Amino acid sequence: MKSILENRQALTYAVNQAAEVAGYLWQKGWAERNGGNITLNITEFVDNGIKSLPAISDVKQIGATLPYLKGCYFYCKGTNKRMRDLARWPMEHGSVIRILDDCASYVIIADHPVMPTSELPAHLSVHNRLIEKGSPYKASLHTHPIELIAMTHCKKFLEKDVATNLLWSMIPETKAFCPRGLGIIPYELPSSVKLAEATIGQLEDYDVAMWEKHGVFAVDVDIMAAFDQVDVLNKSALIYIAAKNMGFEPDGMSQEQMQEMTRAFNLPK
């Protein structure tokens, strides 16, 4: 049987980009064992040939009814699959799913019956909200950036916008490329409905949601852009930690300097 990616250039590009990002996550140490997840809304790339593919799994329940996902297609990293393996073989360590008409269930259609991530309900709930509000964002990323997670073990960084303002102040690019900042979610059980709901809420106001003592959740137009959001935030965390390790509290950019950045680059206030 031919791969779903054969002769489908745009879809191939999106999945290969996911594989490239998976490799970066592993290289950075953000994807230990099977840690982290990638989910792509690939509906716009789906042709009649893909739509006609039969299910290769039983019907699976999402655990929520998501009305804006009716008839949508997603590429999902597989549960218990490693990012380092997905980087090399994306269709052996991920799969394509079709959301069914009840908006509460799905089937796997390609290439292999690889079960999607256990955090699929959270990812799909976020995508449902993105479609509902007309967002152009099609990619969601969950990963474990070491320095950002370390910061959540300090209570002061869990206060509203404290981490965001600190990270913005470390280097101008962080404010420029992550202009809405980092929303903080107090610890919730991984894969729980409460965590999914909290993530949706934080992404209304922030570019990236930080799960206390766990990891981050980012969305953007494609998976590389979502990765970039996390990368710039973690670079700022690294600068902060490097200064602390040198024995001093970094000054950071002043509020006036950051306001100047906001005006100069026409960033959200």
UniProtKB/TrEMBL annotation:
<dbReference type="GO" id="GO:0019323">
    <property type="term" value="P:pentose catabolic process"/>
</dbReference>
<dbReference type="GO" id="GO:0005829">
    <property type="term" value="C:cytosol"/>
</dbReference>
<dbReference type="GO" id="GO:0046872">
    <property type="term" value="F:metal ion binding"/>
</dbReference>
<feature type="domain" description="Class II aldolase/adducin N-terminal">
    <location>
        <begin position="16"/>
        <end position="241"/>
    </location>
</feature>
<dbReference type="Pfam" id="PF00596">
    <property type="entry name" value="Aldolase_II"/>
</dbReference>
<protein>
    <submittedName>
        <fullName>Rhamnulose-1-phosphate aldolase</fullName>
        <ecNumber>4.1.2.19</ecNumber>
    </submittedName>
</protein>
<dbReference type="InterPro" id="IPR050197">
    <property type="entry name" value="Aldolase_class_II_sugar_metab"/>
</dbReference>
<keyword id="KW-0479">Metal-binding</keyword>
<dbReference type="InterPro" id="IPR001303">
    <property type="entry name" value="Aldolase_II/adducin_N"/>
</dbReference>
<dbReference type="GO" id="GO:0008994">
    <property type="term" value="F:rhamnulose-1-phosphate aldolase activity"/>
</dbReference>
<dbReference type="InterPro" id="IPR036409">
    <property type="entry name" value="Aldolase_II/adducin_N_sf"/>
</dbReference>
<keyword id="KW-0456">Lyase</keyword>
